[in-house]
């Protein structure tokens, strides 16, 4: 694995004044990406919701809707 320095080399970076300053109107150098700093991700499941929690949510929703429907029918009659 090679190491990439995040700091630019001042003598090879265009647009820098002596001492490392940036003149007005000049964009400073961007940071380099350092891919070796993050851990390698080996497990990232791509599946959506599991079947059991989704089934429980649907059943609870249907039971609540049935309760309010029955309550409305009792109030009407």
TrEMBL record:
Keywords: Membrane, Transmembrane, Transmembrane helix. Pfam families: DUF6480. The chain crosses the membrane at residues 54-76. InterPro entries: DUF6480. Residues 1-47 are annotated as: Disordered. This is Uncharacterized protein.
């Amino acid at each position: 694995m090679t190491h990439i320095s995040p700091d630019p080399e001042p003598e090879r970076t265009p647009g820098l004044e002596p001492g490392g300053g940036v003149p007005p109107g000049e964009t400073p150098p961007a940071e380099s990406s350092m891919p070796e700093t993050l851990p390698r991700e080996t497990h990232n499941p791509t599946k959506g919701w599991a079947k059991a929690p989704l089934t429980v949510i649907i059943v609870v929703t249907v039971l609540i809707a049935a309760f309010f429907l029955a309550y409305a029918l009792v109030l009407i009659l």
